[in-house]
Amino acid sequence: MIKAVKLGQVACEVKTTIKGSASGMPIVGLEHFDSGELTLSRWDNSGKTTFTKTFQKGDVLFGRRRAYLKKAVIAPFDGICSGDITVIRPIAGKIHQSLLPFIIQNDSFFDYAVKNSDGSLSPRAKWSSLKDYSFSLDDDMNKQAELAKILQSISNVRQTYQSLLIQCDDLIKSRFVEMFGEIVKANKGVDTIPLSEIAECIAGATPSTKEKKYWENGTVPWLSSGEVEQGRVFRTATMISEIGYRSCSTRMLPKKSILIAMAGQGKTRGYVGISEIELCTNQSVCGLKLKPSVNPEFLYWNLRLQYSRLREASNGDAGRGGLNLGILSSFKVLWPSDDLQQTFATYANEIDKLKFNLQQAIEKAKRISAKILNDALTEE
Question: Which among 104, 135, 148, 144 is positioned nearest to 3, based on CA atoms?
């Protein structure tokens, strides 16, 4: 029988804390979550932490801070987590353990969490509100298990596609090293140059959020640092008004400008993108306005492959552990002949086309999964 239930009727928040040393226990923070993904692929094994909240294998770990980032994963082991993570455990006999994660990792739930979060700069969703999230649920545990099995199968397909995406990146990186060597060794006899020789480094700015006229009826594409992760930027999540653009020091960047995230949450710092449209950015993004002779596609891939070096370059000195224009202006890249640049860019772009098709397949799988789940949770 299908009936309406509240989350608090089928699951509970776990608030247990560690007793004694954290040595040997995996440590999980919000930075280890991938937005929109149920699988936890990173954690800390150092044993050094101020976190005290514990969780068990099979629990759902929900990122209650900035719920719009859609961070929720299945715990693959027992461990310790941040206080900004809500540990949610199914109540035996009320909901199948394998179904609960899909209910939490669902746009409807995230929308509810965002709407019921408290705080302006760093809004947090509390269990006292989350437990009132309502949805329809078949009380037949076998049917719940069948639904979870279907959703897990789709999730497995998505993970396979994600693995192929990583393999595509590995191919591009291997080709780069094969042709030019490692940047720190320059063992192929390729020159290195600072970015200041080939581009102007420009930081953006943010119009005052107190002025609605700066944000209403926007026509100017405005990029935040979190959006650089998409790589090729064909559109921005936000459009500011012309008057908003003129109110601050952000500048329009031409198409094929390189974008570098200088700061941001989690893994954001060090991401590199390329603009496929004219746009401006916020202050956490450096736009590289290239000299006419520069091959933008080569520089895009060159820098994108230097993610680790870019993150390390800040050395924690640039405010919030980020990069700045001075650091980036002096950042050195390998700079081979024009012919070799074009050869590599052509190869990388062909692989990029394969990645695009894989990403489209992943998005289609997400839509199918969402429809199946939403139909089940809203059935009367």
Answer: 135
